Every structure is written in C-alpha cells, then in structure tokens.
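User: My collaborator sent over this chain with a note saying "see what the structure looks like." That's all I know about it. Can you take a look?
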Amino acid sequence: MTSNVDRLDDQLRRALEGDAWHGPAVLELLAGVSASQAASHPIDGAHSIWELVLHIASDYDLVLRRMSGDGRPLTAAEDWPPCPPASEENWGRALETLQRLNEKLRQAVREFPAERLDEGLVSQSPYTAYTQFIGITQHNLYHAGQIALLKRALAAQTSPPAADRGAGWGESMARVTGIGGVFFKSTGDPKALAAWYQKNLGMPIEPWGGAALRWPEDRGSDGGVTAWHVAKHDSQWFAPSKAPFMINYRVDDLDALLAQLRAGGVEIVKGPDADDNGKFAWIMDPDGNKVELWEPKKG
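Assistant: Without extra context I'll predict from the sequence alone. Here is the result:
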C-alpha cells in the first residue's frame, strides 16, 4: 500500500516535472523559454516568468527551513528575490536551483515520519506538515497558470498580423506558425535516452530534461526551416523502426558527426546521401526510433 508520504512525494514531482492531472507542470511550461523571454514583462503590472520561478523556489526554502525547526518567515527579498542579469547561464542556474530544491524537499518528505503529518512543523505557523507539503504543489500550479498566461502574452507580441497570413486564411482564422516542440515517450528510461542524445548528437539537454534549439544558431542558407509531412500508411520511409514517426535533426557538420557516431559505436543505417537540399544520414536511437540527420546547404 502506498504511504501518505509517498503520495506527497509523487504529487511534488508531478507539480514541478510533469504528468500532473490538470495539464502542464511548471518545468513543462518553462521548456524552451529563453532568458530574455523569462526576464520580460509582457503584461503590465505582472511579474515576469523569471520572478515567478525565483518566488516558487523561495517556497521550497521556507518549508525546508521549517522542517529544520527554523520558524522565521521569509523577508520580502527572500519571498520575491531580485532577478540577476538576463543571461542564459543565469537562467539555467535558476532552473537548476528550482529542480534541486524540489528534489531536496521530496527527499525530506520521504524521510518524514508519517505519524507527524497532522502536527505542525514550527510553532510560528498554524499549518500542519501535511498542509504545508501539499501546499507546495498548490503554490507551484497556481504560478504555473500565470506562466502559461505570460507565455501566451509573449507569443501575441511576436505573432504576425492577420494581413500577413496569406491568401485563403480569412481575417479571423488562426493558424499554425511553426513547430513549437517535439515530444515523444521513451520505451524505457527517458533520462537515459536523453543522455544518449546528449552524448552522441550533442543535444543541449537543460535541467528540466529537454532541450531548446533556437534558429538564430543555425547556419543553413534557408535561415532555419522545419519540414512537416504526412506519410502514407504503408510507407517504408521510417523502416526499420516500427514507430509511426521519424524526427529529422539539422546538424552543422554531418561528416564530422558521423565520424563521432561511428567512434562511439553507433551504427549508421544509411548515408551519407546528398541532394539539392543538403546531405542526409540515418541512425537508430536506443529505443528503436529512426533518426534522420540533415546538414542543410550553407549560405
């Protein structure tokens, strides 16, 4: 039978990392957010995404402090810490801190005596340990909703006007503007699969478990384009994989990458081939998914 502390541990994980019943968790919403986006204020009078992340982290600090017997309340500066300069390094550090504090609290909760859940942590707070632990999940998801609204406001600032949407769209019709992310399940250990992509393909895995690939870093002559296509049901394009999809990754130097892959023991299924669009090769990941590698023509 699952204990109450184990259930609390699971809810704390879901609220931050994902698989929450309500929708996207905090780190899922933060996926792909850049430092400049996190620091901006797209809604007048509202906190930035970065400020919210630091504030969420402060709540972990507060409960961990109380678990150690320290009943001091957070100061204003501790509750809403000032943001550092908006660099990707500082933003990555903020996300790492948030994830580390979540893991630290979950470990403390797992070790907490179940018989004390209905007792207070410190005399200065009227709330029980259980209320404060589950309250962290509520606090996470309350601010997750605000992050979602801020992301929508950021998207509205950069979306093209209706007049630029092309013929046939109609003035009130919304449209897809690009691929915002690629998400798929692992058949085994997702962290191990992500580590394989990081080791063999240089995927820049971030603390939240995924990667954000930004077009300005691409050197292709097309300026950065994502192809989208629906294959026939009997297509052998993805073979020998049995998965109904294949992900194409743009790479900067296909020949060098293939040499690295061979040195690392990764089999090249096919290629390199070349056509008017550039050079291509295909490999299989540890889960049996076919991966297409594409070096676009340089400008």
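A starting point for your reply to your collaborator: The radius of gyration is 23 Å.
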